[in-house]
Amino acid sequence: MASSSVLSVATQCVSRNASSLSINETHKGKAKLGGSTLRFSKSSGRISMTVAVNVSRFEAIPMAPPDPILGVSEAFRADTSDAKLNLGVGAYRTEELQPYVLNVVKKAENLMLERGDNKEYLPIEGLAAFNKATAELLLGADNPAIKEQRVATVQGLSGTGSLRLGAALIERYFPGAKVLISAPTWGNHKNIFNDARVPWSEYRYYDPRTVGLDFEGMIEDIKAAPEGTFVLLHGCAHNPTGIDPTPEQWEKIADVIQQKNHIPFFDVAYQGFASGSLDEDAASVRLFVACGMEVLVAQSYSKNLGLYAERIGAMNVISSSSESATRVKSQLKRLARPMYSNPPVHGAKIVANVVGTPALFDEWKAEMEMMAGRIKNVRQKLYDSISSKDKSGKDWSFILKQIGMFSYTGLNKNQSDNMTNKWHVYMTKDGRISLAGLSLAKCEYLADAIIDSFHNVS
Amino acid sequence: MAIRNSLSGQLLRRSSAVSGARFISSWFRSIEPAPKDPILGVTEAFLADQSPNKVNVGVGAYRDDNGKPVVLECVREAERRIAGSQFMEYLPIGGSVKMVEESLKLAYGENSEFIKDKRIGAVQALSGTGACRIFAAFQHRFHPTSQIYIPVPTWANHHNIWRDAGVPMKTFRYYHPESRGLDFSGLMEDIKNAPDGSFFLLHACAHNPTGVDPSEEQWREISSLIKVKGHFPFFDMAYQGFASGDPERDAKAIRIFLEDGHLIGLAQSYAKNMGLYGQRVGCLSVLCEDEKQAVAVKSQLQLLARPMYSNPPVHGALIVSTVLGDPELKNLWLKEVKVMADRIIGMRATLRENLEKLGSPLPWQHITNQIGMFCYSGLTPEQVDRMTNEFHIYMTRNGRISMAGLNTGNVGYVANAIHEITKSA
């Protein structure tokens, strides 16, 4: 580019910004020119000047805070202490604290590799074989809702992506409707509904006095919400508390929701991981469907098939007629198309292969029981360690009553910080620990840390 | 646990008591059926067609000369290397760092100073769609009153993406129907008339759906004018390597803008050029003034991604970083991409020859002038309907033909059909 034309452009910039021209010649550097920046670079022996077009359009953009959950792992990785323990993100670890790829997943992947499947686009709604398998896994293959074709299933980007589709459906077709979410809930729920522009408020859930469920508060708040509110429920293994309603409580919750004409919206991220049984863990969802309610259900295979990074899940809408399900499915597709066009194929094929091949399915159930079993053992050991070491008489039995990957310790933010700063135990600031990241060998150490943080830090 | 078992027991009691369940009238009564997606709906219709002569020149997915989907050898090899060996732990919200690095090198240049100076805020994205969507959401969040200028025509999903992100759209002239080429003066006028500092969506190469690209000289003029107007150039590059067969050459427009000092935004996709369609792997990048800004921008892109999908899928990213990160595999990829591009360039020539040999009265040089996967045939929607109904040839109603769907076996049939339908036009 001839230097004269560069200077003429520079002049235009100057006249736009009405500032004087001053150039500091450096080998490589910048000089301010009104609102623009002159950039110098040395190329092939001569200094050439290019005017950076404007001050960046994104000049004023602030640094976003680290994600409260995923940021924990980053901090953990940076810690050099030998004693460090990552109880942050809910990712299953073996007793050796290694990540675990399920055997059935390896087998399924090898099958897929041998078959030499192509990599064509999936339809917008995802892999048909996956959609069928996931709905059947959730509801039971002989569920009347499936037989009557009342279930609209769309493959989604794990739990998050499926929830987002549901939220977008609510925003578009239920203008003004609110979502009621538990206090507390998974951190990302609020982000999802905020970004989807769906207003939300909370229902009481966790009772710090009992470290258990505030059932009356929950029922009261659900009753108080305006008719037609969406109620976000965790199907099993509540995140972050690990506190689930009892079967009787589920019945009452279903009654109230039905009476108030609310719409239940289930987040099922741990099917199989709570009790070890896939069917048992789906009981709450199946109850609501059996009551005749229309239900939204987001599913994830991140934990129970260890497919975290493949982003595989589903959004299901169980409605009152097959005709309605067809319409709803078409609109879910219309929401997905401008988000990502069609979902990733790899995880879907793994799930379809595992669930669809009887031998693999059985093997999966066994691995599921094994993983859930390890967590139950660790719970027991942690409880035993704390109870024997803590002489204060505090009741720690909530650890045993809670279920799933997480335990809500009842530690507050300062105490959680102490866990990290003094003991190198990484957890989220709400007091949640992921038992999936705990080994039997580390239970004693963790017990010491918890006791210290609880009693000596306010 | 006894407690859990009894929930199933109660469930049985409940369902038998509520057989023929009492339904409230559906919440979803007012939800209308959505229209079929204009592009992906074509493939659905094609699959349902029983005719042995059917041809799918609808969606832009590459096919070999036997009409079969292709998995690149470099991809297969990458998959063999990674199968079962990787733990599928969550990627960071911003995706695979390695894949993003390789993507930036491909787009900005192996030795790009911008990469060295860490001035690019970039995240792995859900292919091109996902990259555009995150950018649109980012634009909406930080420039809430801005609009996006899109070319006429453009890929149909661009409208959906910016609309659902809440960013209003304006258009600029692009395609010139009479010449089946570029309306360059219209384009320049519209760039000039747009208010200073507008956001412009540009196709880096192989414009979709027209196949009409500006020449290098025209790109330089566009770049100059956009610079004078202080517009923000956002590039959608879905076909790097696929247009000319040479990824460096296909990135020319971007390199021109970078030399000119623009701070660009860029969506990259590996759907076509690596055949990773269903893996949904791509990259979104924003060139910033300095490293600090790049870090801030990346953090905000992540903040948008987290409530959409938390973190992106790993499989496709591993394939890309394995292929691009290994010199041997990368060379193999470059060869394979050239084979794909050459086959398409060959099909363009053959289709045009056939039409001219059939004695078509209409001009067809635009078929070989246009570049990339698509050809804007000039067929009207009614003519397209005839192509489908009479000849079982499936394409989008804007007259766009996916050249990848043509092969030596069907090009004659398609030429014949086009001729039949247009000869009296």
TrEMBL record, chain A:
Gene3D superfamilies: Aspartate Aminotransferase, domain 1, Type I PLP-dependent aspartate aminotransferase-like (Major domain)
PANTHER family per record: ASPARTATE AMINOTRANSFERASE, ASPARTATE AMINOTRANSFERASE, CYTOPLASMIC
Protein name: Aspartate aminotransferase
Leftover remarks: In eukaryotes there are cytoplasmic, mitochondrial and chloroplastic isozymes.
Reactions this protein catalyses: L-aspartate + 2-oxoglutarate = oxaloacetate + L-glutamate
Pfam families for this protein: Aminotran_1_2
Organism field: Stylosanthes scabra
Needed cofactors: pyridoxal 5'-phosphate
InterPro entries per record: Aminotransferase_I/II_large, Asp_trans, NHTrfase_class1_PyrdxlP-BS, PyrdxlP-dep_Trfase, PyrdxlP-dep_Trfase_major, PyrdxlP-dep_Trfase_small
Subunit structure: Homodimer.
Key words of the record: Aminotransferase, Pyridoxal phosphate, Transferase
EC number in record: 2.6.1.1
PROSITE patterns, A to Z: AA_TRANSFER_CLASS_1
TrEMBL record, chain B:
Gene Ontology molecular function: L-aspartate:2-oxoglutarate aminotransferase activity
Boundaries of every Aminotransferase class I/classII large domain copy: 53-418
EC assignment: 2.6.1.1
Coiled coil: none
Cofactor(s) in the UniProt record: pyridoxal 5'-phosphate
Membrane-spanning parts: none
EC class (word): transferase
Top-level taxon of the source organism: Eukaryota
Other facts noted in the record for this chain: In eukaryotes there are cytoplasmic, mitochondrial and chloroplastic isozymes.
PANTHER family assigned: ASPARTATE AMINOTRANSFERASE, ASPARTATE AMINOTRANSFERASE, MITOCHONDRIAL
Family: Belongs to the class-I pyridoxal-phosphate-dependent aminotransferase family.
UniProt-recorded name of the protein: Aspartate aminotransferase
Organism encoding this protein: Stylosanthes scabra
The gene coding this protein: ASP1_2
